[in-house]
Structures are given as C-alpha cells and as structure tokens.
Amino acid sequence: MLVRPVTIDEGRRLQRISRTVKDPVKLRRVIVVLMSAQGQTVKDIISLMQVGEDCVRDVIHAFNERGFDALDSKWSGGCPKTISDEVREHICLIARTSPPLTGRSLRSPPGA
Q: Which of 25, 26, 27, 45 is nearest to 35 (CA)?
C-alpha cells in the first residue's frame, strides 16, 4: 500500500513541514507520507521508523482521504468541562470583584 501520488508542490510542502514542525507526532506522520510517496513499502517504513503497522497504514489512509489535514494531531485540548457556563461566569464575577476595604488583607489571620 502506498500513499496517493503526491504533486511536486505537495512534496515541497511536506519537506518544508518536516524541517519546521515542532510536534513529534506530526513529524512522524509527515515522514511516513514522504517515505511512502518515495515508494517505500509499509514493511520498510515500519522497520526504519520503529512504529506499528497499524500506525503506518492509518497515516497513509488518512492522508489519501483528507490530505494535509490528516497530519495534524487530534488533541482535544484537555479534560471535558466539569462545570456549566453559568457557574463559570459566576466564579469569574467573584474573581473580578475587589475585596471589601476593611483594613484587612487576605493574609491577615481571622480576628486581626
């Protein structure tokens, strides 16, 4: 199985990405696509990249279907929300409120 034919411009773009990308996952995906575009077999890519066969096949299939979008990680940006937007707004309102001017600081012990 090989990646779809890559145009000269796409090849240049892949090479440029491989030189500048900071994300190791994206770099690995770009290298897999480049190797496949150069005619390397899945078996060769597996042995050179030290990744699983499923990983290589998934990257090739994804690139064939979605193009360059398939190179980006699917990071979800952290844990799912555990509080509602209404509660979040209330917390933000409290956080933006100035403390009462009673002569005490937040570090003062109670009763001081």
A: 45
